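Researcher: Next entry: Leucine-rich repeat-containing N-terminal plant-type domain-containing protein (Hevea brasiliensis).
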Amino acid sequence: MTLDYFESSSSRIGSIPKSLFNLASLSVLSMQTNGLTGEIPAEIGSLVALQILDLGNNGLKGTFPISLFNCSSLGILSFDELGLTGTIPSEIGELRNLEYLNLKYNSLAGTIPSPLFNMTALRIIGLESNRFSGRLPSEFGHGLPNLEEIYIWSNQFSGQLPSSISNCSKLTIVALGANSFSGPIPNSLGNLRNLEVLNIPDNLFTDESSVPELSILSFLTSCKALTRLALAGNPLNGTRSEFNQ
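Model: Predicted structure:
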């Protein structure tokens, strides 16, 4: 059989048919909301032609199968709302064609492996509602020239937001709320001319200016596309916590 597309959503299949792992030409495997249980099979790595893999909203648990990184053609990887634990393996950097990474609503922990910050094809990163910790690297942004949306809210990130984020010149959405980021909000955010949403509430951001109401908004005036600004829950001394345009 030559099959390159398999989609079965909300069918309550319960497990991934083992026969699928023999389909060397399979490029799309979408099985979200199917009541899948157990761990993600190591055999998934035999599907070397995969471009889209969506197993979201199932009962799958365990850690990332290292064999997955044999699927070097992957452009979309969606493992959201599973029970994944452990860390993101550094081998994720081998997915050089990956454009969309969706790992939200799991129990993944640890720091983000440095190779992820050099995946030049990435357009969307969704890591929200996990247990990730640590700091974003000071060179953040240099290796993500195509990044458009980043969602990492509701984790345990800390430290300052690197000013190098402005190197992600295509960013439209930055959602970093409910972490422990601290220090000043970098002025370089004002260089993100395509920015539409800046959502950074419930952190520890401070404002070092004597006129905080003006300092934050002043460097964002060049963000002509900005329609949503959320700052509530930061010790910013009087700055308006929310802005909608």
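Model: Note for the record: The CA atoms of residues 118 and 143 lie 4 Å apart.
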